[in-house]
Specification:
Blueprint (H helix, E strand, L loop, with lengths): L6 E3 L18 H4 L7 H12 L6 E2 L9 E9 L3 H10 L7 E8 L6 E8 L6 E4 L4 E2 L7 H14 L4 H8 L11 E5 L11 E8 L8 E9 L9 E7 L2 E3 L2 H9 L47 E4 L2 E4 L2 E8 L3 E9 L2 E16 L4 H5 L1 E3 L23 E9 L5 E13 L5 E6 L5 E7 L2 E11 L2 E9 L5 E9 L3 E3 L8 E5 L2 E4 L1 E11 L21 E2 L4 E2 L2 E8 L19 E5 L24 H5 L9 E11 L15 E9 L13 E6 L6 E5 L24
Parallel strand pairs: 2-3
Antiparallel strand pairs: 1-32, 3-4, 3-19, 4-5, 5-6, 5-7, 8-9, 9-10, 10-11, 11-12, 13-14, 14-15, 15-16, 16-17, 17-18, 17-29, 19-20, 20-23, 21-22, 22-36, 23-24, 24-25, 25-35, 26-28, 27-28, 29-34, 30-31, 32-35, 33-34, 36-37
Copper (II) ion binds next to strand 29.
Organism: Thamnophis sirtalis
Keywords: Copper, Metal-binding, Oxidoreductase, Signal, TPQ
Family: Belongs to the copper/topaquinone oxidase family.
Length: 699
């Protein structure tokens, strides 16, 4: 549910020099400087680093935490100055390089070091990038999860009977009645800790909605699991020092338990399986409306270059953060150098120890890497172009994520423009309209329980919209009466905890057609410039509109993620301020390895500089019973628009030939239809050709 929030309208005017036609077209080759690493490139970087004896790298899978391993490989974008030199003047393309994240778990000072590796496709060098960060801040890996689960099974052995009695499920020898868990973050209350609250759940479909009432705090800060321990236990509103203490008190009849009923598959409330009936309306077991393209795609995708109705851009799906658009142009004119997703956070309230400490910072959970397959007809129209992506994240080889991106043209269902020109005598002097369409570039991130649907929409009138829909399972806790102030009772033993979603975007507007002098020196020519238009003087601008604010997150953690403070922040562009978040903030938000706040604190001038806008959108989510089984997309969507404002001489969608104009014939009988597309779009929409009456009358 969205709380009413102030509707933000910001305005960014980036002034341009009216130098026509100086940019070479954005070709597939040019766009490729921004493309993600191919499987061959990922393998080349991996092989190169694995063969360096001084790094002592071992496979990610298996072994212990006290090892050196390669965690992440992704394309390192070229420096903006070099990229612009190439894009604007066609000089040598920048060398392709990779970013590699290495976990050093051995030695006296375990740490995480990032490297720049290049050139690709055949790497010859690697060098550190930035300062090493504390090993304790590392994202969780599949190996650590396996070790945590094994340790939990061992340390919770005294509670085997208890768990069986309260839930009918167990941790060992459990067949189809097994327990699983959700771990929350941050992992502790202070920098340097790795103490994680674990929520025990029944491993059935939609297990996120099936807590059994037990939460435990496991300290897994040491690299040797033999030294891990459970420090606190919470069950149904009561705290215990150890699992043994709970087991003993339970055996003595001192612990009030809540015995869960069994969950036969047929009645699972957490399942997508249809149940119930609408009591009105036609049968629902038939297909609904579909998108179709009677004359084929009206857009093109070549490699990572997209072209559509005046637009051209390069895109990538960055493993660490998600979709990035580069060199976004309209009619050959650059609008933005980069528009990209940076971070998504969700801060919770609760009475159980796990939910009261939950502050998810999703880049720390591999937000850009969990881009699973999109279903034709559901996640994207059947007509969409689907693309695979490759991630090397906590893996020992590139992993293919099939159909992870889709691109499609969407009829918006509302005209882009229309007018009925009444003659005020029961008819019209003309009717004219332009069908509404947008090109959508979409991917999703399934960050454990939640699914984000990330969209960039391109409209033929020069508007670019970003949207993020939230769906998937809500993060829940076991219902206790004390939890009610922090959420909604969603089911007998289930509390949906209140939380705030905030999403951060980077917009590097670059409304400039002047080629920089190569090599690039200093400030881009975003110069205040007055331009004579059709009889008027005006600024040429793009404005930013939209975005919903939300309550500020917990102050004590703002150092790590101050996104809630700023709906719109504008900074000078700096190569070392490329992203606003990092992989390591989630597990140490108290002393973050980098802070977006520092981008703003240097008190730099933003007058006549190359500027970057950072936009926060978000909403408060008070879970409600209709979040069962999943949060639904209607109403849970936020975003913003970049809109031309005196940028073009007129609405550039006048170039569209999909306009239809209808005028009454001079004879006074019938109408004359003027159009620039075939009369009928074809049978996939309707067999009836377009018709229009153009009269109105009382009935
Ligand atoms: Cu939510």
């Amino acid at each position: 549910m969205r709380m009413p929030v102030a509707y933000m309208v910001g305005m960014l005017c980036l002034f341009v020099q009216a130098i026509q036609g100086t940019l070479p077209p954005l070709s597939q080759k040019a766009a490729s400087i921004f493309s993600d690493l191919s499987p061959a490139e990922l393998r080349a970087v991996r092989t190169f680093l694995m063969s360096r004896p001084e790094l002592g790298l071992q496979p990610s899978k298996g072994g212990s935490l006290a090892k050196n391993s390669l965690f992440l490989i992704e394309m390192l974008p070229p420096k903006k100055s070099q990229a612009l030199c190439y894009l604007n003047t066609g000089t040598e393309p920048p060398r392709r390089r990779a970013r590699a994240v290495v976990f050093f778990g051995t030695g006296a000072k375990p740490n995480i070091t990032e490297y720049i590796v290049g050139p690709l496709p055949v790497p010859r060098f690697y060098r550190p990038s930035g300062q090493p960060v504390a090993f304790i801040t590392r994202p969780m890996t599949q190996l650590e999860y396996k070790l945590v689960f094994n340790k939990l099974t061992e340390l919770l052995a005294p509670l085997n009977q208890f768990l069986k009695d309260v839930s009918g499920f167990g941790l060992r020898d459990c067949q189809d009645r097994c327990l699983t868990f959700t771990d929350i973050a941050p992992r502790g209350l202070a920098s340097g800790e790795r103490r994680t609250w674990i929520i025990l759940q029944r491993a059935i479909e939609g297990f996120f909605l099936h807590p059994v009432g037990l939460e435990v705090l496991i300290n897994h800060g040491e690299l040797d699991p033999a030294r891990w321990s459970i420090e606190t236990v919470w069950y149904n509103g009561q705290y215990f020092g150890t699992p043994q203490e709970l087991a003993q008190q339970y055996a003595q009849g001192k612990v009030p338990i809540v015995q869960l009923v069994s969950h036969p598959d047929q009645t699972l409330f957490s399942s997508f399986v249809p149940r119930g009936e609408f009591n009105t309306g036609p049968p629902t077991n038939v297909h609904g409306a579909k998108v179709c393209e009677p004359q084929g795609h009206r857009y093109s995708v070549h490699g990572n270059l997209v072209e559509y109705s005046g637009w051209s851009l390069a895109f990538r799906l960055r493993t660490s953060t998600g979709l990035q658009l580069f060199d976004v142009r309209f009619n050959g004119e650059r609008i933005a150098y980069e528009v990209s997703v940076q971070e998504a956070i969700a801060f919770y309230g609760g009475n159980s120890p796990a939910t009261m400490q939950t502050k998810y910072i999703d880049v720390g959970w591999g937000m850009g890497s969990v881009t699973h397959e999109l279903a034709p007809g559901i996640d994207c129209p059947e007509t969409a172009t689907f693309m695979d992506v490759y991630h090397h994240y906590d893996a020992d080889a590139p992993v293919r994520y099939p159909n992870a991106i889709c691109i499609f043209e969407l009829p918006t269902g509302v005209p882009l423009r229309r007018h009925f020109d009444s003659n005020f005598q029961g008819g019209s002097t003309f009717y004219a309209g332009l069908e509404g369409h947008a090109l959508v570039i979409r991917t999703t991130s399934t960050v454990y329980n939640y699914d984000y649907i990330w969209d960039f929409l391109l409209f033929p009138n020069g508007v670019l919209e970003t949207k993020v829909h939230a769906t998937g399972y809500v993060h829940t806790s076991f219902y206790t009466p004390e939890g009610i102030p922090y959420g909604t009772r969603l089911h007998t033993h289930l509390l949906g905890n209140i939380h705030t979603h905030l999403v951060h975007y980077k917009i590097d507007l670059d409304v400039s057609r002047q080629a920089p002098v190569c090599p690039y020196r200093g400030v881009l020519p975003e110069i205040h410039h007055w331009r004579e238009g059709i009889g008027i003087f005006r600024h040429r601008c793009f404005i930013w509109t939209g975005g919903a604010g939300s309550p500020r997150p917990h102050l004590e953690l703002e150092a790590g993620h101050p996104l809630g403070r700023y709906h719109l922040a504008v900074t000078q562009q700096h190569e070392n301020e490329g992203v606003s978040s990092s992989l390591y903030i989630q597990n140490d938000p108290w002393h973050p390895s980098m802070s977006f706040e520092n981008f703003l604190r240097n008190d730099e001038s933003i007058d006549k500089q190359d500027l970057v806008a950072w936009v926060t959108v978000g909403f408060l989510h008070i879970p409600h019973s209709e979040d069962i089984p999943n949060t639904a997309t209607p109403g849970n969507v936020v975003g913003f628009l970049l809109r031309p404002f005196n940028f073009f001489d007129e609405d550039p969608s006048v170039a569209s030939r999909r306009t239809v104009i209808v005028r009454p014939k001079e004879s006074g009988h019938g109408v004359q239809i003027q159009r620039w597309t075939p009369e009928s779009p074809g049978h996939c929409v309707t067999k009836v050709p377009f018709s229009y009456n153009g009269t109105y009358s009382p009935i």
